[in-house]
Amino acid sequence: MSEQKYGFTTTILHNDRRKAIEQGSLHKPVHTSVAFGYQDARQLASVFQGKEPGFRYGRQGNPTVSALEDKISKMEDGVGTICFATGMGAIGALFQGLLRAGDHIVSSSFLFGNTNSLWQTVSSQGVAVDFVDATDVANVAAALRPDTRMVFVETIANPRTQVADLARIGQLCRERGILYVVDNTMTTPYLFRPKAVGAGLVVNSLTKSIAGHGIALGGALTDTGLFDWSAYPHIAANFRKQPPAAQGLAQLRAKALRDFGAALGPEAAHHIAVGAETLALRMERTSANALALARMLEADERVAAVHYPGLASHPQNGIVTSLFRTGGSLMSFELVDSIDPFDYLNRLKLGIPASNLGDTRTLVIPVAHTIFFEMGAERRASMGIAESLIRVSVGIEDTEDLLADFRQALDA
Ligand SMILES: *Cc1c(COP(=O)(O)O)cnc(C)c1O
């Protein structure tokens, strides 16, 4: 196929065919081999020395995974992508590959629970972390120090749906030459490309909406090409030999993926690639369902609060309408005190109590008692998480069925 510019879905569907695939296979085959043999031992040596492309050992690269990395790069309009076994593997790689004791990072305080926990670990290992309310760039600016290496935010925070001041933080990082890392999991590259606001690295948990089916774990780091790695102090001499644009991912692939070993398996990569073909279709449907459900709940006096970025009442709805294609598929809400949230969840017939999101099925979870239980009430309160908060990852069910289910559980 030529390098013609196609739309989002066409690009994903046909990307594998840009390179020859065995027997005209329409899907990149699942290559399970861990080792890759060469006819000429000199060629093996030159692959190891990075003088020619090729695969060495399954932990550092695999043809099936590489085809997925190519697709994610296309989705994010990036220059390169590294896949990991999980989204947390990708976020952990930032620490392992790029940070040193004595560094400082600024992170949004509205975070996925395990990322919050990871930053606690990082703080105990010599990297200082400042948590700020990233819905206002002024808080990020006030936290910056001369040794700040990275600003980390999520697009739409899980579960309270705060939206970071994405464009202004990007501008600030550009002015200060600081690496801007955006976790795009909740928006996906279909709703929003963090490159548009100056992100240098983009995180995606592939487990969630990109795969969409909930049958495989995976994560990715994409380099958008915007960050100047020649100015980053911790690139080892070995990786300085690469062109500046390639230095960040070269070091991440060796120091984080290879040395820590959170490699994505080829079977999971295959499942994720198949799921990703319908990302745009699913996001349109789940977003429409989420907006309809959010509007219904907001209008009901038995519901005390609804947090959905696509609602006009959401504090950052202006950013959502200017930067994102839709408000996404994640919402959370609080019932009035007289309704027990557990009883409510037990009355749902379609919403399934489960801890995942971005699935084709609607999943519900009582946040404070499960995914955000470990961090304690004080930290939850600082994240705006009420003890009765219910998170909903809206699926692709028929809209009327979904609304009827959430309504009957209120009526009962
Ligand atoms: C789920 C999630 C992650 C972690 O991804 P896993 O694939 O579960 O490791 C990171 N960030 C956000 C915003 C998430 O929702």
From TrEMBL:
Keyword DNA repair: no
Domain of life: Bacteria
Cofactor(s) named in the record: pyridoxal 5'-phosphate
Keyword flag Cytoplasm: no
UniProt xrefs under Gene3D superfamilies: Aspartate Aminotransferase, domain 1, Type I PLP-dependent aspartate aminotransferase-like (Major domain)
Membrane-spanning segments: none
Family annotation (InterPro entries): Cys/Met-Metab_PyrdxlP-dep_enz, PyrdxlP-dep_Trfase, PyrdxlP-dep_Trfase_major, PyrdxlP-dep_Trfase_small
Entry's family note: Belongs to the trans-sulfuration enzymes family.
Annotated NCBIfam families: PRK05939.1
UniProt name for this protein: Cystathionine gamma-synthase family protein
Biological source species: Massilia varians
